[in-house]
């Protein structure tokens, strides 16, 4: 039998949402379930890769044979990803990282008072773009793009702007795929190519995506 497709490869994958704390009881989160990133981690392991999974706050079991690092906030995810970067051949950013975080986390619970309440948010670092520009950049950097319109144009713009090798776009406006779902469908773009992965269970979609990743990695040499 031929060796598994990702034998000897080291994959770093981020998954899940991030929770940005406002005070001791409240946070800003998002609807990412982590299922796609966890499916990628499990499939990559099954395909022979050594896998490190940086997971936001989700209650999913760790896939067998996968090394998992749990984080909560975008800033913690960034620190964990950058610390793990050396030695990895592939970075796949499947996490739905918060774009904004509260300017400060209050030490006490905010009390009800006025009719309105304003919370100042500040931009977070773009982990994916930072990984792609890093001196220890993995040979293949893969991003995700959740889009509701003009998917290819936005995905290709992200591919160039963030300096990625591949971008996997999903149409989150469509029922039965994407966030909080067991199914997904992806359109994957690279500089001079496109490959569509048919709608189905995230486990199969993950395997198809990783076959493409393996192929792109082989094309590099
Ligand atoms: O720009 P946008 O958020 O649509 O890009 C999505 C991709 O960028 C995903 O791969 C996501 O993991 C990554 N990302 C990141 N850090 C951020 C925001 C997004 O790594 N702060």
From TrEMBL:
It comes from Arenimonas terrae. This is Coenzyme A biosynthesis bifunctional protein CoaBC. GO terms for molecular function: FMN binding; metal ion binding; phosphopantothenate--cysteine ligase activity; phosphopantothenoylcysteine decarboxylase activity. Its EC number is 4.1.1.36, 6.3.2.5. Its cofactor is FMN; Mg(2+). Binds 1 FMN per subunit. The keyword Ligase applies. It catalyses: N-[(R)-4-phosphopantothenoyl]-L-cysteine + H(+) = (R)-4'-phosphopantetheine + CO2; (R)-4'-phosphopantothenate + L-cysteine + CTP = N-[(R)-4-phosphopantothenoyl]-L-cysteine + CMP + diphosphate + H(+). The keyword Magnesium applies. Signal peptide: none annotated. Residues 11-221 are annotated as: Phosphopantothenate--cysteine ligase. Pathway: Cofactor biosynthesis; coenzyme A biosynthesis; CoA from (R)-pantothenate: step 2/5; Cofactor biosynthesis; coenzyme A biosynthesis; CoA from (R)-pantothenate: step 3/5. Residues 6-215 form the DNA/pantothenate metabolism flavoprotein C-terminal domain. One of its GO terms (biological process) is coenzyme A biosynthetic process. GO terms for cellular component: phosphopantothenoylcysteine decarboxylase complex. CTP binds at residues 99, 109, 144, 158, 162. The chain holds residues 181 to 401 of 401 of the full protein.
């Amino acid at each position: 039998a031929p060796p598994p497709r990702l034998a000897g490869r080291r994959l770093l994958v981020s998954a899940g949402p991030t929770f940005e704390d406002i005070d001791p009881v409240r946070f800003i989160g998002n609807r990412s379930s982590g299922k796609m990133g966890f499916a990628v981690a499990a499939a990559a392991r099954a395909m022979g890769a050594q896998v490190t999974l940086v997971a936001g706050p989700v209650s999913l079991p760790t896939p067998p044979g996968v090394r998992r690092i749990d984080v909560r906030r975008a800033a913690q995810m960034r620190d964990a990803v950058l610390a793990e970067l050396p030695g990895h051949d592939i970075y796949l950013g499947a996490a739905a990282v918060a774009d904004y975080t509260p300017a400060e986390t209050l030490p006490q619970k905010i009390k009800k008072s006025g009719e309105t309440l304003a919370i100042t948010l500040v931009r977070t670092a773009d982990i994916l773009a930072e990984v792609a520009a890093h001196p220890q950049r993995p040979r293949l950097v893969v991003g995700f793009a959740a889009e509701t319109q003009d998917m290819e144009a936005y995905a290709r713009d992200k591919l160039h702007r963030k300096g990625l090798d591949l971008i996997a776009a999903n149409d989150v406006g469509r029922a039965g795929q994407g966030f909080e779902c067991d199914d997904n469908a992806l359109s994957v773009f690279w500089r001079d190519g496109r490959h569509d992965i048919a709608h189905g269970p995230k486990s199969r979609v993950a395997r198809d995506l990783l076959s493409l990743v393996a192929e792109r990695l082989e094309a590099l040499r």
